[in-house]
Amino acid sequence: MLPYGRQSISDADIDAVVAALRGDWLTTGPLVAELEQRIGELAGGHRAVSCTSGTAALHMAYAAAGVGPGDEVVCTPMTFVASASGASLLGASVVFADIDPETGLIDPDAVAAAVGERTKVVTAVDYAGQPADYGRLQPLANEVGALTLADAAHSIGATLDGRPVGDLADMTTFSFFPTKNLTTGEGGAAVFRDPALAQRAHEFHFIGLVRDPARFRMTDEGPWHQEVHELGVNYRLTDVASALGLSQLNRLEAFKRRRAEIVARYDERLADVPGLALPGRRPGADPVWHLYPVRVLEGRRREVYDRMRAAGIGVQVNYIPVYWHPVYADLGHRRGACPNAEAFYAQELSLPLFPDLTDDDVDRVVDALRAALR
């Protein structure tokens, strides 16, 4: 089965991990700090806090923003559940705003209708690797005193109008899962334009530990002393994982180029296929393509999915609208709330896309898709 996504591991990646295993640190050490520095530089020069997953990064960001009971988070439904569940875990209510039907990105007009005095965070997802329209989303958040959050699990290394992902929203989260644009095995990071938010996120992911003597409430202890002022969790990344991440960062531009080449080949070879809509494009975006999401028209998505799988092509569907999950249905969310997202889901099919995919592999996918649509 040709997978829809897969990690690309080089000898240099393996050597970096082996070197870390032979070093003095396995868990939180100098390689974690170096990885955070590199991610921060890539993301516009802001502080990055690494963590154990993209889900953890979202939880950290919401916690740093002070999200809690009584607050609302406006979120796209066209995403993995973690974009919303981190806010729900902290007691907030999630309000889903519909998407642009061509790109799958959150629609600022829908956000404008959804924000209000209880809105704490507006969460966009850079679906498939294209940045959302933060130029319109940020003023909407500012008007109600909310923060913007870019779930950039798909888009590290991308830019919008020349600005890097990480500098487009108040908070940005990344995922380093194996199918993403770079990997640490499992892992993620959050980037913050406000250093105070970054410090809150750091302490939250480090069990709540405060190590700054100027903030201690107990001042008569010894040099070993540390305190917990707010409860946190252990989301710390390891030096071993960071070694892989640092090596992968050296390859990110090459990954981006190869992904763009694959997308261009799909575009060319699928342009004339009836019953198929190709991915829409965001003006001003220089994406890092994580997905190639076609839309299968005329109600044939399930049929085509089954035929592609039977042909050994590991297509995927990204994503079921978040509020369709039973956990959100049980909270009172109902189908029909975001018709564009539901129509997009009914048609969406992600074709294989990863850096080690060969041109022959792409042609095999295209031939199978043409046959499935006959």
UniProtKB/TrEMBL annotation:
<dbReference type="InterPro" id="IPR015421">
    <property type="entry name" value="PyrdxlP-dep_Trfase_major"/>
</dbReference>
<feature type="active site" description="Proton acceptor">
    <location>
        <position position="180"/>
    </location>
</feature>
<dbReference type="Pfam" id="PF01041">
    <property type="entry name" value="DegT_DnrJ_EryC1"/>
</dbReference>
<dbReference type="GO" id="GO:0030170">
    <property type="term" value="F:pyridoxal phosphate binding"/>
</dbReference>
<dbReference type="GO" id="GO:0008483">
    <property type="term" value="F:transaminase activity"/>
</dbReference>
<keyword id="KW-0663">Pyridoxal phosphate</keyword>
<dbReference type="InterPro" id="IPR000653">
    <property type="entry name" value="DegT/StrS_aminotransferase"/>
</dbReference>
<protein>
    <submittedName>
        <fullName>Perosamine synthetase</fullName>
    </submittedName>
</protein>
<dbReference type="InterPro" id="IPR015424">
    <property type="entry name" value="PyrdxlP-dep_Trfase"/>
</dbReference>
<dbReference type="InterPro" id="IPR015422">
    <property type="entry name" value="PyrdxlP-dep_Trfase_small"/>
</dbReference>
<dbReference type="GO" id="GO:0000271">
    <property type="term" value="P:polysaccharide biosynthetic process"/>
</dbReference>
<feature type="modified residue" description="N6-(pyridoxal phosphate)lysine">
    <location>
        <position position="180"/>
    </location>
</feature>
<comment type="similarity">
    <text>Belongs to the DegT/DnrJ/EryC1 family.</text>
</comment>
